[in-house]
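Input (structure):
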């Protein structure tokens, strides 16, 4: 992992805590949550206040959620909104916490100016006994206060003020007035400087969870589905189509029926040919390193020379992707590629909509040789696979990501996946173009197979 850290591809954009004041505030908050303090005088924190250095010191990377309990966070500054989240067990946690900071920024800025803010993220589910309990997670509620309880104290003063305004006899209530004065000394002027956190509840219709071997839950689609990374964990859940990542034909058909994915080659705003060329590069590099072939500087010319020596070991994805690249650059006949082709999931991307990022994460798990998309959309899986790669592949991937992603993250994401999506649900009825008659198509195994964006796969049985 040292290569990734050195290139800023792991633990990047963390907030540095190196002042005695911040360390003291963090320790005060940490003691309140865990009953422990750090002896470190300098460390880094993510958006939720988690520090990899403190995790290493404690020997517990989940120290902010003791004994697998509720998710807790520490805010020292609103600038944490730009930091990543290092250990999310739900894919939506970083986005929800970022929105919480942004939508309450003025109040949180005021609070963190004098104290650390500690909080918890509640999913409303007391116990996840099995995958069937996951649909109970539909919204996240955030509760936060400073270690000095400034929000609670402000709420007490606000309640007194409200009582004073409503009660016509309050002007003569010396006890109430004295209590208000004393409370104001603790909380300040809550009328001019309110500290109420108003935006604390966030709906989460779609998410990935690391629980139960990894599960995708997509509720915003017209046909809700749960897709399991571990086939042994697959459970029938009422109201959901349940699949595993091995069910490639049914997943492709489901994506088509619900207009959740589209071919890169005709996606709006996508420059398909360069994207396809890069995907071919990633696949060839993986194959060449696995076969022990010389890849030189890892450039395109060296990879093409290595491909010429692969013979029958040439990856099966190459033929389909090369055909698509030729079509994008030269035109001609539309390539016939369906979900039985190894190139299929490399050649599509999620459509705009609330589930876009989650669908792209699923596609990266179905086509993990595209290491750039895997890194961008599914870091937990990327880091796990990275540890098992040969050293030559680790070097190639680290250098490639530093060169082609890290220098312009947002630009790369936009080029690959399109602009940030709106929240409108895609309408399958309006997307009858290249997908064909997906619902009716069947493979020779009896599993659903979409007619596909490339040719007449359903009719000719290919």
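Output (sequence):
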């Amino acid at each position: 992992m040292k290569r990734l850290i050195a290139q800023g591809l792991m633990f990047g954009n963390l907030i540095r805590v190196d002042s005695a004041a911040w360390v003291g505030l963090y320790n005060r908050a940490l003691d309140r949550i865990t009953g422990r303090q750090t002896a470190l005088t300098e460390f880094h924190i993510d958006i939720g206040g988690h520090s990899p250095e403190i995790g290493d010191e404690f020997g517990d990377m989940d120290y902010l959620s003791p004994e697998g309990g509720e998710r807790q966070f520490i805010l020292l500054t609103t600038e944490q909104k730009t930091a990543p989240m290092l250990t999310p067990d739900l894919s939506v946690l970083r986005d929800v916490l970022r929105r919480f900071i942004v939508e309450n920024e003025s109040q949180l800025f005021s609070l963190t100016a004098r104290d650390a803010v500690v909080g918890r993220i509640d999913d409303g589910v007391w116990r996840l006994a099995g995958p069937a309990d996951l649909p109970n997670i539909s919204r996240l509620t955030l509760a936060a206060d400073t270690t000095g309880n400034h929000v609670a104290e402000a709420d007490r003063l606000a309640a007194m003020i409200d009582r004073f305004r409503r009660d016509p006899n309050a002007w003569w209530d010396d006890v109430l007035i004295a209590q208000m004065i004393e409370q104001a000394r603790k909380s300040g002027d809550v009328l001019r400087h309110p500290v109420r956190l108003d935006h604390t509840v966030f709906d989460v219709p779609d998410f990935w969870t690391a629980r139960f071997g990894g599960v995708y839950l997509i509720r915003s689609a017209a046909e809700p589905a749960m897709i399991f990374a571990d086939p042994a964990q697959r459970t029938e859940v009422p109201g959901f189509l349940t699949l595993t990542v091995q069910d490639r034909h049914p997943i492709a058909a489901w994506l088509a029926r619900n207009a959740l994915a589209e071919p890169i080659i005709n996606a709006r705003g996508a420059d398909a040919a360069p994207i396809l060329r890069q995907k071919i590069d990633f696949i060839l590099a993986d194959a060449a390193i696995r076969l022990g072939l010389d890849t030189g500087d890892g450039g395109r010319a060296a990879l093409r020379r290595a491909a010429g020596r692969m013979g029958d070991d040439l990856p099966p994805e190459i033929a389909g992707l090369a055909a698509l690249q030729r079509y994008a650059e030269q035109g001609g006949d539309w390539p016939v590629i369906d979900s039985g082709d190894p190139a299929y999931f490399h050649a599509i991307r999620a459509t705009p909509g609330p589930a876009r990022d989650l669908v792209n994460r699923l596609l990266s798990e179905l086509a993990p040789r595209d290491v750039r998309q895997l890194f961008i959309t599914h870091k937990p899986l990327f880091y796990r696979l990275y540890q098992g790669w040969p050293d030559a592949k680790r070097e190639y991937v680290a250098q490639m990501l530093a060169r082609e992603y890290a220098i312009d993250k947002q630009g790369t994401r936009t080029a690959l996946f399109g602009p940030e999506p709106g929240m409108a649900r895609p309408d399958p009825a309006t997307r009858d173009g290249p997908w064909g008659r997906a619902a009716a198509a069947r493979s020779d195994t009896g599993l659903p197979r979409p007619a596909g964006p490339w040719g007449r796969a359903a009719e000719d049985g290919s």
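Notes: Confidence is low (pLDDT under 50) at residues 189-194, 431-462. The chain has two domains: 2-146, 248-460.
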